[in-house]
Specification:
- This is Protein FAR1-RELATED SEQUENCE.
- It comes from Stephania cephalantha.
- The longest helix is centred in the middle third of the chain and has 28 residues, at 85-112.
- This protein has eight helices and no strands.
- It folds into two domains: 5-53, no CATH class; 65-154, no CATH class.
- It is mainly alpha-helical and 156 residues long.
- α1 runs antiparallel to α2 (24-38).
Length: 156
C-alpha cells in the first residue's frame, strides 16, 4: 500500500489533512484523492473525521472515552462480574457520592476564581451559575460557531 517510509509519510500527511477537512465537500474531494492513491480508505471516514462532529454542539465530547473510563472504574470497584444487586447498588452509590462531591468542590472554586476573559457582558450573566469548565466549553462552541458563520449548509 505504501511501498516505503516516504510513501507512509505522504499517506499520513494526506490523512491528517482529511481529518481536519472544514466541509463535507472538501472531505469528499480529499477522500477521493486519498482513495485513488492509497486504496480503500473511504470506509473509515465516519469513524475519525471531525467534520462529522463539528456539525453539532457537543461541548468537546467527540469520543466515548468518558463512558469507557466510568465503566473501567466501576469494574475495578466491583472486583468481578458475579456480584449481587445490593453490592452493585452500594458501589455505584459510593462512586456517585464521590463524583458529586468533586463537582461541588469544583463549582465552589469556579464561583470564587474567575478568569479575566469572562468579565465581558455575555459571560458576566453566567458567572456564579455555571462552572469555569462550562464557560470554557461555551466559549469553544461560540468560536466553532464563528468559524461556521451564517452558512447553514455547514451545520447539521
Amino acid at each position: 500500500m505504501f511501498g516505503n517510509n516516504e510513501g507512509f509519510a505522504r499517506f499520513m500527511d494526506r490523512w491528517t489533512s482529511v481529518l481536519y477537512a472544514k466541509s463535507e465537500a472538501l472531505l469528499e474531494l480529499m477522500m477521493n484523492d486519498l482513495h485513488c492513491e492509497f486504496g480503500h480508505v473511504k470506509i473509515y471516514k465516519e469513524k475519525f473525521v471531525p467534520t462529522w462532529t463539528n456539525r453539532i454542539m457537543h461541548f468537546g465530547e467527540t469520543t466515548t472515552q468518558r463512558v469507557e473510563s466510568a465503566h473501567s472504574i466501576l469494574k475495578l470497584h466491583l472486583g468481578n462480574s458475579q456480584t449481587n444487586f445490593e453490592t452493585l447498588r452500594r458501589v455505584v452509590d459510593g462512586l456517585l457520592r464521590i463524583q458529586h462531591n468533586n463537582i461541588k468542590a469544583s463549582f465552589e472554586l469556579s464561583m470564587n476564581v474567575v478568569q479575566h476573559e469572562y468579565f465581558d457582558g455575555f459571560y458576566r450573566r453566567l458567572l456564579g451559575y455555571v462552572s469555569q469548565r462550562a464557560l470554557k466549553l461555551i466559549r469553544g462552541e461560540l468560536e466553532r460557531g464563528e468559524d461556521v458563520g451564517h452558512d447553514s449548509t455547514r451545520c447539521g
